[in-house]
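== Polypeptide entry ==
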Amino acid sequence: MDFTVTQRFAASTDDVLALYTDPAFFVSLAPSDKLATPELVAHHRTGDSASLQLRFRFIGQLPSAVLRFVEPAKLTWIEDTTINVLAASSTSVLKPDNYPDLLKASASAVFAGTGPTSTRTITGRVSVPVPIFGRKVEGAIVEGLTDYLHAEADAAARRLSTDG
């Protein structure tokens, strides 16, 4: 299942890129009803490239049908993101810590804007190769990702307004 989310900021593209390459931003995010605060696994910055590996943990409620296939405590994954600051773009891959055959997810983002406003447009794909339930689970994951990205953008906007 494909998805697209556009985040809008009252800040320059350079300021937004600086925030999204700062691991302190992500580990300061408040948990939601479905996701714990991300844990920093690794961060590297080399010239105009940054990479972040963040571990996410699902803490929400799952339907009983899903509980037949997965153990909630094992729903953790690494989001492996590489940001090219010069190209104002990034790529991300979700790597499940458990159940690697049940989730394939990746995304790319483009940072754009002129002057004091900018956007970050994320396009991605989620695949859950499970007969009968797969498409429904994909929809739930995309809904959760979209909710997370909107909450992340709100937190980024607050941070950018206090930093600027």
Summary: The chain has a mean pLDDT of 92. The chain has one domain: 2-163. The longest strand covers residues 118-127. The beta strands are 2-9, 39-46, 49-57, 76-84, 89-96, 104-112, 118-127.
